[in-house]
C-alpha cells in the first residue's frame, strides 16, 4: 500500500501547498479527474476548517495521509487542535430560508456530498478525520 504524507503548520499560507500535494497524490493513485475535483472540494473544505478553527489563536500542525486500500482512496487529516467530531454534527435545516439561517454551517454538507464515507476518532490528543472515495465505477 502506498501512502503519501505531508505535514505543515496549520496556516492559511499553506492551504495551496496542501491542496496541490493532496490532488497530486489522488491523481497518482488513479482517481479520475472529474471525481478527483469533486473529492478535492471536500478535502479542501475540511483542511480549511481545521486551519481556521482547530487551534484558535495557538499554533499547530496539520498532517495529511493519502492512501489506497482496494477500491477506496482515503485522505486522513490529523491535527492536535481542540476535539471536534464532524461526523456527529447535524445537517443544517434546509427548510429555513437562507436569509434566516445562521452564517456558516454549509461546509459539512459539501464534505458529505463529495466523499463516500467519513470517519472520525481521537487518539493521543489528536483528531483523525478520514474521508474516503471509491475508485472506478460510478462513484469514482
Structure description:
There is one protein chain. With 140 residues, the protein is α+β, with helices and mostly antiparallel strands. The chain has one domain (3-134): Histidine kinase-like ATPase, C-terminal domain (Heat Shock Protein 90). 31% of the residues lie in helices and 29% in strands. The chain contains 3 helices and 5 strands; from the N terminus they run βααββαββ. It has helices at residues 15-28, 33-54, 107-114, and strands at residues 3-9, 61-69, 72-79, 117-123, 126-134. The protein has a 5-stranded antiparallel β-sheet, covered by helices on one side. A hairpin with a 2-residue loop joins β4 and β5. The longest helix has 22 residues, at 33-54. It is globular. The two termini are 19 Å apart. The model has no long low-confidence stretch (mean pLDDT 89).
Strand order of the largest sheet: 1-2-3-5-4
Largest sheet geometry: 5 strands, antiparallel
What is the CATH topology assignment?
Heat Shock Protein 90
Uncertain residue segments: none
Tally of domains = 1
Share of helical residues: 25-40%
CATH architecture: 2-Layer Sandwich
β-sheet strand percentage: 25-35%
> At the fourth CATH level, what is the homologous superfamily?
Histidine kinase-like ATPase, C-terminal domain
- Please provide the count of β strands: 5
Q: Characterize the overall form.
A: globular
